Amino acid sequence: MTAFDVRLITEEERRSTFDLLRRALHRPRATDDLWAWGGASWPAAHKFGAFEAGSPIGIVSAYDTEIAVPGGRTLPVAAVEGVGVRADRTRRGVLSAMMAAQLADFVARGLSLAVLHASEPTIYGRFGYGSAALGKTLRVTRPAARLPERVATGGEVRLLTPEEAVKEIPGLYRRIGLHRPGMIGRPERWWPLAHDRHVSADDGHLVAVHSGPDGDDGFVVYATIGSRSVDAPDRGAVLDVHDLHAAGPAARAALWRFLLSVDLVSEVRARHRPVDEPLALMLTDHRHAATVAVEDDLWLRPVDVAAALAARTYRAAGPVVLAVTDRLLPANTGHYEVGPDGARRTDAAAELALDVDTLGMLYLGQWAATTLAEVGRIDVRDAAALGRADELFTTTAAPWCGTSF
Question: Which residues are catalytic?
Answer without folding.
Answer: 124, 405
